[in-house]
Design a protein that fits this description.
CATH architecture: Orthogonal Bundle
CATH superfamily: Farnesyl Diphosphate Synthase
Largest sheet: 2 strands, antiparallel
Number of strands: 2
Structural class: mainly alpha
Distance between the termini: 36 Å
Oligomer: single chain
Strand order of the largest sheet: 1-2
Order of helices and strands: HHHHHEEHHHHHHHHHHHH
Radius of gyration: 20 Å
CATH class: Mainly Alpha
Helix content: 55-70%
Number of helices: 17
């Protein structure tokens, strides 16, 4: 069983995967139309179609961490390298056409969620990834439509995978379940309802974040496993790993909101405090929140090891999620 890859730092791993994803998205979101009249409209920078695509590219190609797409690629490599293969084979020989379109599609969908999350009717934020949010750079209507379009483009990208039809269906089922009313969208609704709810419990907070933040992150990891033809035991392990790091990710976000600054975060700092939102530090305190995040990371690693998934980048990504500075 080949369970190793070339030894590189997690920073190098993230940088290399991010570059691959950025390049793929850059090409995937180029203007391309069959309708000649629509194409003519695109030639005019003031054209409505041009404005829409510019807003889509502005929000999806503006320097995000790409953590969901990277986790998808890492899970794919972890399972692929955990299968019998020639001794001289490694991750550079993997068929990324099976997973790269999916990982990029997930990132497009994540960009949609950020556009919508920043809208005045949602979190009403003016800064994202160090730049004006989409509705500030353009306008609210354009931002809403750019998000809608990125959602559809993201799903379309996932269908460009070289996977067999049955696996494609599994991917789309997993993905759509994670972003609908039972996942990210439902979690956003709960978040809106619970804003400034001083009665919210830790259990309610975890349910909300498992949907709003954790569901798509979990799907990213599980889908990477599906693309690599993981068995049921491996899928369960990847799922448990992802649930743990998804919660750890949100705890880290809550901590950073209090301890960091807007310049470093690339978004408005201390906003949760200003809006009196229920957060992990509010319920547990900073010290216990940090301890909880580290505990979840260790549990995530244990889940992988119990199923003999011994892939260092997945372990290091779990650490990165709670140790990151933004």
């Amino acid at each position: 069983m080949n369970t190793s890859v070339k030894e590189i730092s997690i920073q190098e791993f993230i940088k290399s995967k991010k570059q691959v994803l950025d390049n793929y998205l850059d090409q995937a979101l180029l203007y391309s139309f069959d309708n000649e009249k629509y194409k003519e409209n695109m030639q005019n920078d003031s054209g409505s179609a041009s404005k829409l695509w510019a807003a889509m590219r502005y929000s999806s190609l503006n320097g995000g961490k790409r953590i969901r797409g990277i986790l998808c690629l890492a899970a794919f490599e972890a399972i692929s390298l955990n299968s019998p293969m020639p001794a001289d084979d490694n991750s550079t020989n993997l068929d990324l056409n099976k997973v790269l379109p999916i990982a990029a599609g997930i990132e497009a969908i994540h960009a949609m969620s950020l556009i919508h999350d920043d809208l005045p009717c949602m979190d009403n934020d003016s800064l994202r990834r160090g730049k004006p949010t989409c509705h500030i750079a353009y306008d609210e209507a354009t931002a809403l439509l750019a998000g809608d379009a990125l959602l559809v483009e993201g799903i379309a990208l996932c269908l460009k995978t070289d996977l067999n039809p049955a696996s494609k269906i599994r991917v789309i089922e997993e993905l759509t379940a994670s972003i609908g009313a039972r996942g990210m969208t439902g979690g956003q609704m709960i978040d809106l309802e619970q804003t400034a709810n001083e009665e919210a419990s830790l259990e309610e907070l975890e349910i909300m974040h498992s949907m709003k933040t954790g569901a798509l992150l979990k799907a990213s990891v599980v889908i990477g496993g599906i693309a690599a033809e993981a068995n049921n035991e491996q899928i369960e392990a990847l799922s448990e790993y992802a649930v743990k790091i998804g919660l750890a990710f949100q705890i880290a976000d809550d901590i950073l909101d209090q301890e960091s600054n807007s310049e470093l975060l690339g978004k408005t700092a201390c906003k949760d405090l200003a809006q009196n939102k229920t957060t992990y530090p509010k319920l547990l305190g900073l010290t216990e929140s940090k301890a909880k995040a580290k505990e979840l990371v260790q549990e995530a690693k244990t889940a992988l090891l119990k199923s003999n998934i011994n892939f260092q980048p997945l372990f290091s990504l779990a650490d990165y999620i709670v140790e990151r500075q933004y």
